[in-house]
Amino acid sequence: MIKGKILQDYAELIIKIGVNLQPEQGLEIACPIEKSEFAVELTKAAYKYGAKIVNVRWNCDQIDKLNYANAKTETLTDIPKWLVNSKNYLVQNNFCYVAVSADDPEAFKDIPAQKLFEISKAKSKALKKYSDCVMSNGIRWCVVSVPTSAWAKKVFPNQSDPEQCLSEQIEKAMRLNTENPLLAWEEHIRVLEKRANFLNQQRFSYIHLKNAKGTDLMVGLCDGHIWTSARELAKDGVPFMANMPTEEIFTAPHRLRVDGVLKSAMPLCVNGQIIDDFYITFKKGKIVDYCANVGHGALKGLIETDKGTSRLGEIALIGKNSPIAKSNVLFYNTLFDENASCHLAIGQGYTTTVKNGDKLTKKELLELGLNDSTEHEDFMIGTPDLSVVGIKENGEKITLFADGEWVI
Ligand code: ZN
Ligand code: ZN
């Protein structure tokens, strides 16, 4: 269990460099009810740094499951106005938002995939204005994790104390085992920013991804794309980190310029269901063929959500020697697994990954190639033999990854 001083350090890290809460600013926390002690620590840390008010929204997989199993789809897809208003309230009042992601990866495995996707689609549609704001850093937000019992059991099924094992992994990934976690993060951020700067100087038109598993994909980049890493600037000019941990350097693919095939490298968990062992084929940016040996219905639901879920919104590069990748643990939680492997995302692109993105209209962003969708779902494609080559407009090629690791 993460507890005592380490839990305090963890909470402070999230408040201070995660959302970077400023004096007299409100904070909302979404947290599994099983982990109330973590929400309490976050609240204490928030007040230590001068919070105006802290509100907590509890969640519970078991209650969600009972609702999904028993309530009618038409009821579950009727998203209440108060929920939409409460999210918009966060934006209007410049709140920070911490989401504690610790779901049971298979919480909803017995619920029909179609029903889950109708619910998720209705929710995403109702909250589109809010998610657009989050994706363009209109508020400062941070996704973090603590172990819950069902999740830990899935990750360490054969250990006598799964929660302890998962705690140790999270402590390592969060650099909480270092003498000064805050300094360790500052150093880590510096290394990532240096690489992002290098990529930004190159002005690549395409990134070519290839491995022995069968991935052979040309990913065109948005005109005016920006490679971004751990620390971003919110609209109010205050820096923050949207994910902790984070190892990625990412940017925006061009919605019309992706061609070839990708093979998944790891399972991913969407809406309490696992999708694994799949391929996706693209033509001119659009998904034209796909098949998953595990969770095909869930993949189909995701890809068919809206027009934008058949195109890409993110490409992210992570070396195979990142601390999370080296742990060799499959977390069944995208916050961790995406930081162990190069990944792509289906759906919405980040306006922050194109030049002046926050000042452009939706139409202008589409013209630059930024994808628009109600969803954004990462999935892992990085294998230990992955090669990544950047290709410039004049045809010049620069190898970025050989055998799954940075060479620049
Ligand atoms: Zn990512
Ligand atoms: Zn993503």
Protein described:
It is built from 14 helices and 19 strands. The strands form four sheets. Strands 5, 6, 10, 11, 12, 13, 17, 18 and 19 form a nine-stranded antiparallel beta sheet that branches. It has a four-stranded parallel beta sheet with strand order 2-1-3-4. The protein has a four-stranded antiparallel beta sheet with strand order 9-14-15-16. Helices cover 34% and strands 25% of the residues. The protein is globular. By secondary structure, the chain is an alpha+beta fold. Bound molecules: zinc ion (2 copies). One zinc ion binds next to strand 16.
Break the fold down into its secondary structure elements and pairings.
Layout: H1 4-18, E1 27-32, H2 36-48, E2 54-59, H3 61-70, H4 73-76, H5 81-92, E3 96-100, H6 113-126, H7 128-135, E4 141-144, H8 149-155, H9 162-173, H10 181-202, E5 206-210, E6 216-221, E7 231-233, E8 239-241, E9 249-251, E10 253-263, E11 268-270, E12 273-283, E13 286-294, H11 296-303, E14 312-317, H12 323-326, H13 334-337, E15 343-347, H14 362-368, E16 376-380, E17 387-391, E18 397-402, E19 405-406
Helix pairs in contact: 1-2, 6-11, 8-9
The protein binds zinc ion (2 copies).
One zinc ion is lined by residues 314, 345, 376, 378.
